[in-house]
Amino acid sequence: MANMHGDETVGRELLLHLIDYLVTRHGKDLEVTSLINSTWIHIMPSMNPDGFEAVRKPDCYSSNGRENYNQYELNRNFLDAFEYHNVPRQPETLAVMKWLKSETFVLSANLHGGALVASYPFDNGVP
Ligand SMILES: [Zn+2]
């Protein structure tokens, strides 16, 4: 999954290229064919398409597109084991939560832009 923050666009492009890579090599490349034939692969290039559209018109003075259309920070819109976020769940968040419950994911990644960060479940608790 990528582009949760609409202004972080590199992950979105990477995942679109990954999709292209996988589908154009299926049946031609043994590893890609085996991977596709033996696993379920889910790819969401953009969790925040409205934010992405907003950033397509940069004004150089603000960070358009980080939030969704309703101006909510989607990265802070999920349930949190340690902090209570008293904000309404956004349609994008609810859709991802439903998606996560519908599949048995064994490996996942959420691509952001900017500094290098590696997060893991429950990594924001108080020590
Ligand atoms: Zn981000």
UniProtKB/TrEMBL annotation:
Signal peptide positions on this chain: none
Top-level lineage group: Eukaryota
GO process annotations (BP): peptide metabolic process; protein processing
Keyword set includes Zinc: yes
UniProt cross-references to PROSITE patterns, sorted A to Z: CARBOXYPEPT_ZN_2, PEPTIDASE_M14
Gene3D superfamilies: Zn peptidases (3.40.630.10)
Keywords: Carboxypeptidase, Hydrolase, Metal-binding, Metalloprotease, Protease, Zinc
Presence of keyword Cytoplasm: no
Pfam families referenced in this protein's UniProt entry, alphabetically: Peptidase_M14 (PF00246)
A GO cellular component entry from the record: extracellular space
Cofactors: Zn(2+)
InterPro entries reported in the protein's UniProt record: CARBOXYPEPT_ZN_2, Peptidase_M14, Peptidase_M14_domain
Example of a GO MF term: zinc ion binding
Domain Peptidase M14: 1-127
Family from the record: Belongs to the peptidase M14 family.
Name used for this protein in its record: Carboxypeptidase M-like
Species in which this protein is naturally found: Octodon degus (Degu)
